[in-house]
Each structure stands twice: as C-alpha cells, then as structure tokens.
Amino acid sequence: MPNWYSKVNAEEARAARLKQIIDMRNAGLTYAEISLKLGVSRERISQIINNKNNTKTNNSTPHPWLTTGEVSHLINVHVNTVRRWDNLGILKSYRIGPRGDRRFRRKDVNRLFRERTSG
Hints:
By secondary structure, this protein is mainly alpha-helical. The chain has two domains: 11-61; 65-118, Multidrug-efflux Transporter Regulator, Chain: A, Domain 2 (Orthogonal Bundle). Helix content is 61%, strand content 8%. It has a three-stranded antiparallel sheet. Helix 2 crosses helix 3 and helix 4 crosses helix 5. The longest helix is centred in the N-terminal third of the chain and has 24 residues, at 3-26.
C-alpha cells in the first residue's frame, strides 16, 4: 500500500477517536473515567475535548476542502502532479477566490485512491 493511504486511514481513525471521546463525555463520564478506558492521561482527554473546535491545533476532524499542497502531502506526490491530474480531469478541483485557487474535496481524493488501488 502507498504511504498516503495510511495517512488517510490515520486521519479517519483520529476523527473516530475524537467522536468516541466526545460521546463518552456527553454520556457523563469524567476525564478520569475516559482516560482509564482509553489508556491516556486525564490531561490529554481535556486537551482533546477543549480543542475539538480548533482545527489549527487539532487535525482529528479533517476539513472537507484541501489545498493543492495538502493533497500532494497526503498522497505523497509533487504539487505539480496534483495540478496535472486536475488539468487532465483525473482529480476534480474547485476554483475559489479572485485568484482561482484550487481546492479539492477529501472524498474525491479518497475516491481516486480507491479507483487506483482496486484496478
């Protein structure tokens, strides 16, 4: 498997873990109880819960729109390859702003990976 596939799965796993922690907290469990169940410190549980809405410090909830650089980093290819895939119609981008910056949907990147690996 390519290295970028494991990065995609790791992000999905972090998002699932965050949801699990938030669900436990909403169910009335304390930080100490959650930390015992998950094997991490109470302080780490507190950090995760308090930063759940701060995407700069918490990448557990992936943003649906990706820049060209983020896509290239995620799938471990050069940014020019991502641009070329867009120009060839292999990967769909959306142009935003007055400069026409490219943005990619995370689900389109995942779909491209599934198509490339299944056949």
